[in-house]
Write a structure and sequence with these properties.
This protein has 165 residues and is α+β, with helices and mostly antiparallel strands. The chain has one domain: YbaK/aminoacyl-tRNA synthetase-associated domain (YbaK protein). It is built from five helices and eleven strands; from the N terminus they run βαβαβββαβαβββαββ. The protein has a five-stranded mixed β-sheet with strand order 6-3-4-7-10. A four-stranded antiparallel β-sheet has the order 1-2-9-8. A hairpin with a 5-residue loop joins strand 8 and strand 9. The protein is globular, with a radius of gyration of 15 Å.
Length: 165
């Protein structure tokens, strides 16, 4: 594991804002919760997923939940005051945020995006999420994510149902 390199847009964004963070680089990819859990050796409940959605009018919404939960799309739509939401396509994720799916950080995007953080995330001191590259994770306080993105905190998750259950 190495720390992030200079000249990186995410690192510059965080440094300019005086945020306490770490960018952790790995030999293998960290694109899924399972891979991040394996690389870090921490419980998936401390890993966050930043997932881009769009509402029926095409407006982007970033939902952040812990790795042991799923985004409840009905709850997310209700919190956002819309009928329904759907996951953004990979090309839209890249064009709106500047990052690929699987590397999407919770902040530092090309354009401001309305962000909703699941209330369970805010119970944690530090979390690990996408670090802007497929082999990198960001360690940061959820309070810094909330402050920098002007996020709303709400119940937008549901339990992860195991396939073998």
């Amino acid at each position: 594991m190495r720390t992030g390199s200079r000249g990186d847009p995410l690192q510059e964004y965080l440094r300019e804002r005086g945020v306490e963070y770490r960018l952790l680089e790995f030999e293998g990819h960290t694109m899924t919760v399972e891979a991040a859990e394996r690389q870090l050796g921490v419980d998936r409940g401390r890993i966050i997923k930043s997932m881009l959605y769009v509402d029926e009018r095409g407006r982007p919404l970033l939902a952040i939940v812990t790795g042991d939960r799923l985004v409840d799309e009905a709850k997310l739509a209700s919190v956002c005051g819309v009928e329904r939401v759907r996951r953004a396509r990979p090309r839209a994720v890249k064009s709106l945020t500047g990052y690929e799916v699987g590397a999407l950080p919770p902040l530092g995007h090309k354009k401001p995006i309305r962000t909703i953080i699941d209330s369970r995330v805010m119970r944690l001191e530090r979390v690990y999420g996408g670090g802007g590259a497929i082999n990198r994770l960001l360690e940061i306080s959820p309070r810094d994510i909330e402050r920098l993105t002007q996020a709303e905190v709400a119940d937008i998750s549901k339990p992860l149902v195991k396939a073998d259950a």
